[in-house]
Specification:
The complex is a heterodimer of chains A (about 500) and B (about 350).
Chain A lengths: L8 H16 L7 E2 L2 H4 L16 E3 L4 H14 L3 E4 L16 E4 L6 E5 L4 E4 L5 H8 L4 E2 L12 H7 L6 H4 L2 H4 E7 L5 E5 L11 H4 L8 E8 L1 E2 L3 E9 L2 H13 L6 E6 H11 L9 E9 L1 H17 L4 E4 L3 H12 L1 H8 L2 E4 L9 H15 L3 E5 L8 E5 L6 H18 L18 H4 L2 H14 L14 H13 L12
Parallel strand pairs in A: 2-4, 3-4
Antiparallel strand pairs in A: 1-2, 5-6, 6-10, 7-11, 8-9, 8-10, 12-14, 12-15, 13-14, 13-17, 16-18, 17-18
Chain B lengths: L2 H20 L3 E4 L14 E4 L6 E5 L4 E5 L4 H10 L2 E2 L13 H7 L6 H4 L6 E7 L5 E5 L11 H4 L10 E7 L1 E2 L3 E8 L2 H12 L5 E7 L2 E8 L1 H11 L2 E2 L2 H12 L4 H4 L4 E5 L12 E5 L4 E5 L4 H10 L3 E6 L12 H14 L15
Parallel strand pairs in B: 1-2
Antiparallel strand pairs in B: 3-4, 4-8, 5-9, 6-7, 6-8, 10-12, 10-13, 11-12, 11-15, 14-16, 14-17, 15-16
Classes of the chains: A alpha+beta (about 500), B alpha+beta (about 350).
The structure holds flavin-adenine dinucleotide (FAD).
Flavin-adenine dinucleotide binds next to strand 3, helix 5 and strand 10 of chain A.
Chain lengths: ~500, ~350
């Protein structure tokens, strides 16, 4: 591997001084952070295992300042990493050592809310939940609800195409955003989508949604608001066998029901959350399902009846239906707090995000139990079963020598398994810096070259969030070598999909 | 893959490689039912019909995977057997319509206003690249954010990025019951009412206005529909009348469509005020799709629609008039770079999607 000579510290500080001076010229004093203590909070996102201190952090107040920062960085060939709230779980907002972080947190205005059209036009730094709060007086809400919704920004949601517990019925960010406006690295304004459903030419909108900050810096988003359902209730079904819980998931969908939410937690997960959420989960159950119905009271009643019959038929040992809004929220409380709960029972946890065809759920959960043995680490499961989107939480201790490495290998094996079963390495958290190696197993050289070519069409200089999402050929060769060396090509019995 | 489809794919690959070697433009074609769509077609025909067949359909996964040349009618029949459907209700312009053509054309029907368009249901696509390789983007699962979402970029591309050879689409259960309510309303009042009702938790699945009559389709479970009928009022159409209307509207089979006098398809923000253009109209998608039969100057139609935040497609064009609006130079430049990323010699469907691409 050709190694570049180590950059002398003084070179880096010279470069930093140059970049900071140039940015000072286009930003007010309070919009630029450059001292070590100010930079520390930006050295990682929600994936704290990966850290890097940037040269500086720009915190513009206005869109013009965003464009000016981009032009300045383009001129000096400085990498730019956009950042929302930094809750991302794949290192998407991980800084570049020779670049700056461009925080959109201060662009946090709701610019317009049109209750008649059912739309809101917002800046990227607006928090996900703030949109629904602003829409509530009109009986409307923004449907995608990632568990991080109190903190994460709509800009980050668009960049990741985030989901939530309700996307089975209401879709992902992609399905709930109408238009996006942003700037390329060259400072050129681009508008994708619109309030009108069709426009001339190629539809760039789906490429920009989920582009992880590699194509545009997004400065304005028009979202679709939905009428808040008149009522919602949740069925909590307990099973003494994980396989039967998985079969219920398939049976519900096969019966033509698309619940508003269809989530599963295994015993490890319920045991972790129950002590501090007191959600009322059956701790003797091998797995529980939470199945939400929403709509008019009549629709909800009808669906609850049918769902209850199906889960009973599939062998549920207990079925409870929320009788009040308070009870519904209590049933959900454990699910919504699962990640923090994992943080309580273990010093660290590593959250995976693969998606598989639903029919393989039981199989994958079974394989994960085998991997727990192999790596000597525990893994608890809480996930979007209706979408086949897994969130295995691998528990480890970063201070114990070798544990992070094992957790990472464990996670990579799970992703390999998802790919082998016809699924994907990420359902909603993105590739970022974290899963760049796994991209080598999901995509061929030709496919990855197409991603790189699309990136180059938007960002010829390759300065927007470089080294994320798309691995180089070299990186993939390395990844292949590592996996083979460790003798860890898992699941050789499965034909590559 | 089945043997005939394999053979057809190899043949297609050879034709593409030969065209690349000789610099011959190619015109990608499925059943040819949408030859009228887009700007002039140029190049040697690249016929996708042989690359046909359903690859995978498991109703409980809510996904169907089929090769691009599979007839739409076959797919819809297969889904209907299991009580499912393509919820975006693509129009079929004849029995030869293929699923690849449906995705490449990107046209959706009456349900577009409530469930979304073609793009919202595409999960994966395979593209035959200029070097003969088949590139696979997206997949067969509901949620997938690995890499750029290129499978959806192909929706409505009319082939400018190359031939699609396989598609995976999300399917949904058919609604248990449907019914249609009719109201005597002006066009302007209908658009206001459609938008008001769309903001309420009602099981609305389609809206239309034509000739003084506003129609609203409700879909769902029977008790919910009964309740919605009571709260909305209006005249309830008979089952046959209801089905015929939405079918004819979906497949462009009304007398209004058959008339070949200049006709415009206008895409607008649903709540846009009535346009200052003369002519007769047909409204769908709560006002977001407005058909207009008019003798107004094309340039004026386009300008008025653009000022209202929309775009205009000249469906039955006076000679020499491009179908779609032209792109501003900066947007066109980016789209050209994007096309070049897949098709550096600009061989595929040259100029068909938009002038200059
Ligand atoms: C406890 C917890 C629960 C979570 N639950 C879910 C869940 O249920 N579903 C889910 O999908 N995710 C979930 N996440 C992940 C995360 O919250 C989402 O990915 C979220 O969308 C990130 O938003 P952010 O504002 O924090 O973005 P950041 O982490 O700051 O950035 C994410 C990516 O977006 C880019 N970006 C940010 N803003 C812009 C912009 N304006 N323009 C261009 N690029 C930009 C960044 O460069 C980066 O690549 C969870 C995270 C945590 C910590």
């Amino acid at each position: 591997m050709p190694t570049s000579p180590p950059v002398a510290l003084s070179d880096r500080s010279l470069r930093r001084d140059e970049v900071v001076a140039a940015l000072r010229a286009v930003l007010p004093v309070d919009a630029l952070l450059a001292s070590p203590e100010e930079l520390t909070p930006y050295e990682c996102d929600g994936l704290s295992a990966l850290r890097q201190v940037p040269l500086a952090v720009a915190l513009p107040h206005t869109e013009d300042q965003v464009a000016a920062v981009l032009r300045c960085c383009r001129r000096l060939a400085v990498p730019v990493v956009a950042r929302g709230a930094g809750t991302g779980l794949s290192g998407g907002a991980l800084p570049h050592g020779d670049g700056i972080v461009l925080s959109l947190a201060r662009l946090n205005g709701i610019l317009a809310l049109d209750p008649e059209a059912g739309t809101a036009c917002v800046q990227p730094g607006v928090r996900n939940l703030a949109i629904s709060e602003a829409a509530a007086p009109f009986g409307l809400y923004y449907a995608p609800d990632p568990s991080s919704q109190i903190a994460c920004t709509i800009g980050g949601n668009v960049a990741e195409n985030s989901g939530g517990v309700h996307c089975l019925k209401y879709g992902l960010t992609l399905h709930n955003v109408l238009a996006v406006r942003g700037y390329t690295m060259d400072g050129e304004e681009i508008i994708c989508g619109g309030a009108a459903p069709e426009g001339p030419g190629l539809d760039l909108f789906p490429v920009v949604i989920g582009s992880e900050g590699l194509l545009l810096v997004i400065v304005e988003i028009t979202v679709r608001l939905l009428p808040r359902p008149a009522s919602a209730r949740v069925v909590m079904a307990s099973f003494d066998d994980v396989g039967r819980a998985c079969d219920s998931v398939t049976a519900i969908i096969a019966a033509g029901i698309i619940p508003a939410g269809l989530e599963m937690m295994d015993r490890g997960a319920t045991a972790a959350v129950e002590p501090f959420c007191r959600a009322g989960y059956d701790l003797t159950a091998a797995a529980i399902l939470l199945i939400e119905s929403d709509g008019t009271p009549i629709e909800v009643e009808d669906e609850i009846q049918r769902v209850s019959a199906i889960v009973r038929g599939a062998g549920a040992i207990a079925v409870a239906v929320s009788g009040s809004e308070a009870e519904r929220l209590r049933f959900w409380s454990g699910r919504k707090n699962a990640f923090p709960a994992a943080g309580r029972i273990s010093p660290d946890y590593y959250c995976m995000d693969g998606t598989i065809p639903r029919k393989h759920l039981a199989r994958v959960l079974d394989e994960i139990r085998g991997l727990e043995q192999r790596y000597g680490l525990r893994c608890i499961n809480v996930f979007h079963a209706g979408d086949g989107n897994l969130h295995p939480l691998i528990l480890f201790d970063a201070n114990a020598p070798g544990e992070w490495d094992r957790a990472e290998q464990f996670g990579t094996d799970i992703l390999e398994l998802c790919v082998a079963l016809g699924g994907t390495i990420t359902g909603e958290h993105g590739v970022g810096a974290e899963k760049i190696g796994s991209m080598c197993s999901q995509f061929t050289d030709g496919e990855r070259a197409a991603f790189a070519a699309v990136k180059a069409a938007f960002d010829p200089a390759g300065l927007l969030n470089p080294a994320k999402l798309i691995p180089t050929l070299h990186r993939c060769a390395e990844y292949g070598r590592q996996r083979v060396h460790a003798g860890q090509l898992p699941f050789p019995e499965l034909e590559r999909f | 893959m089945s043997a005939p489809a394999d053979a057809a794919l190899s043949q297609l690959r050879e034709q593409v490689l030969a065209a690349v070697a000789s610099g011959t433009p190619l015109c990608i074609r499925g059943g040819g039912t949408k030859d009228f769509l887009g700007e002039a077609r140029v190049g040697e025909v690249l016929d996708l019909r042989g690359v046909a067949g359903v690859v995978d359909y498991d109703p409980s996964e809510l996904v169907i995977t089929a090769r691009a040349g599979t007839p739409l009618a076959l797919i819809e029949a297969l889904l209907a057997e299991r009580g499912q459907h393509l919820a975006f209700e693509p129009p079929s312009f004849g029995a030869d319509s293929t699923i690849g053509g449906v995705v490449a054309a990107g046209l959706a029907g009456p349900r577009r206003g409530s469930v979304g368009g073609v793009r919202d249901f595409v999960l994966g696509a395979h593209l035959l690249a200029v070097n003969g390789e088949v590139l696979r983007f997206g997949g067969r699962v509901m949620k997938n954010v690995a890499g750029f979402d290129l499978s959806r970029l192909f929706c409505g591309s009319l082939g400018v990025l190359g031939p699609l050879v396989e598609l995976s689409l999300k399917v949904l259960p058919m609604p248990a019951v449907e019914c249609t309510l009719e109201f005597e309303l002006s066009a302007a009042a209908a658009v206001v009412a459609f938008n008001r009702w769309s903001r309420l938790p009602l099981p609305l699945s389609a809206t239309s206005w034509f000739d003084g009559r506003a129609r609203v389709r409700l879909s769902g479970v029977a008790p919910a529909l009964e309740a919605a009928c009571v709260s909305l009022g209006g005249r309830v159409l008979s089952g046959d009348e209801s089905r015929c209307w939405w079918d004819d509207l979906r497949h462009y089979r009304l007398a209004f469509h058959a008339n070949r006098a200049p006709l415009w398809r206008l895409s607008l923000p649903a709540t846009a005020a009535p346009l200052a253009l003369s002519g007769t109209g047909l409204i769908e998608w709560a006002g977001a799709l407005r058909w207009l039969r008019t003798d107004e100057e094309p340039a004026r139609v386009r300008a008025v629609v653009a000022a209202a935040g929309g775009s205009a497609a000249c469906w039955y064009a006076p000679a020499g008039q491009p179908m779609f609006d032209v792109l501003p130079p900066a947007a066109l430049a980016l789209q050209r770079r994007l096309k070049a990323a897949f098709d550096p010699q600009a061989l595929f469907s040259r100029g068909r999607l938009v002038v200059g691409l």
